[in-house]
Amino acid sequence: MGLLDGRVALITGAGRGIGAGIARLFAREGAAVVVCDLGVELDGSGQDAGPAHQVVEEIRGAGGRAVASTADVTDHAAAEGMVRQAIDEFGKLDVLVNVAGILRDRMVFNMTPEEWDAVLRVHLRGTFNTTKHATAYWRELRDEHAHHRLINFTSVSGLHGAPGQPNYAAAKLGIVGFTYSCANALARYGVTSNAISPGAATRMTASVPDQRRRAPVSSGDERAPENVAPIAAYLASDRSDWLNGQVIHASGYQVALYNRPHVIQQVASDGPWELEHLAEMVDASFRPVVGEPG
Question: What is the CATH number of domain 8-257?
Answer without folding.
Answer: 3.40.50.720
